[in-house]
Amino acid sequence: MDVVVIGAGQAGLSAAFHLRRAGLAPDRDFVVLDHAPRPGGAWQFRWPSLTYGKVHGMHGLPGMELTGADPARPSSEVIGAYFDTYERTFDLRIHRPVDVTAVREGEGGRLLVETSEGAYATRALINATGTWDRPFWPRYPGQETFRGLQLHTAGYPGPAAFAGKRVLVVGGGASGTQHLMEIADVAADTFWVTRREPVFREGPFGEAEGRAAVALVEERVRRGLPPQSVVSVTGLPLTDAVRAARARGILDRLPMFDRITPTGVAWDDGRTVDVDVILWATGFRAAIDHLTPLRLREPGGGIRVEGTRAVRDERVHLVGYGPSASTIGANRAGRAAVTDIRRLLRDASAAPVAAGTG
């Protein structure tokens, strides 16, 4: 192949669209590998109570807008159906389910992509694996002693599972606040713990604010540090629902506890809270372990990226990583990666053949 795309979420599908528009054909010049069982990217795994109307800022894929969606329908169904239609409309021929186990140096200047359906030798790689497969679980003293249930946002089943229980939600992001506001209506009691004081954002969040937030994330990636989510630097939108929850005391935040006990959590100042469930809404990390053989990481732990190109290997592009980890950012990154890769392929085909090898 000329190009292998890993992942068929927003970023991967955007890249595939632009590859096709550039004249490359699926299964001849490029291939898209996706380990999920069906179309929808990470959206297909979202909890049922996350309806499409609760999704903030879903940006349509290039060449086909998402219109007429029922806001009361689960986002997993709406976006899964949209991605399915998109794949078929543009004949992207996604290979699934396919697990990519490693990407390493191959022969003749190609990369070798090792997968559950065999190995691909490719001139360029677009990595669009996102973060959903790497939920981040913080570790605290006594965690293994807790007798209740611990789960992560990645396994959140919806509010009904918490009826009549005392629930502690850990994490100051959008998911944590959404979980709290849902669970509070059915739980016996809820508690909210965050490492930092949450910042609620009033007023509109326009293009200028968006660019400033993305620039902060992009700066970390340029320095080779692990990316933070764009949401982490934008603050929490102060919606009517959030205002109502704050008025009810649902979003009264406690500082981070110091240890976990068999019946709950405790602070060094003597405070304790007994709970039945600890829900870790603590985010995700980039799913890039399969790239380890290429040694792309910097001492800071991240992959340094210029645009979408990995600084340590111009054949590798990361889309939906760091500053492009949003629906509109993923679209732009897919287009940018393909533009760079077309140049790379042209330069490779124009390179003179070494003496004695022609």
Q: Could you list the spans in which at least 5 consecutive residues all have pLDDT below 50? A: 354-358
Q: For the largest beta sheet, what order do the strands appear in spatially?
A: 2-1-6-19-18-17
Q: Could you give the count of β-strands?
A: 19
Strand content bin: 15-25%
Question: What is the count of helical runs?
Answer: 6
| Distance separating the two termini | 22 Å
Any idea what the shape is?
globular
Helix-and-strand structural type? alpha/beta
- Give the H and E element order: EHEHEEEEEEHEEHEHEEEEEEEEH
Residues in helices, as a percent range: 10-25%
Mean pLDDT: 89
Alpha-carbon Rg, integer: 22 Å
Sheet with the most strands? 6 strands, mixed
Provide key terms for this protein.
alpha/beta; globular; 358 residues; disordered C terminus
Quick description:
The chain is α/β, with parallel strands linked by helices and 358 residues long. Helices cover 24% and strands 20% of the residues. Strand 1 (3-6), helix 1 and strand 2 form a beta-alpha-beta unit.
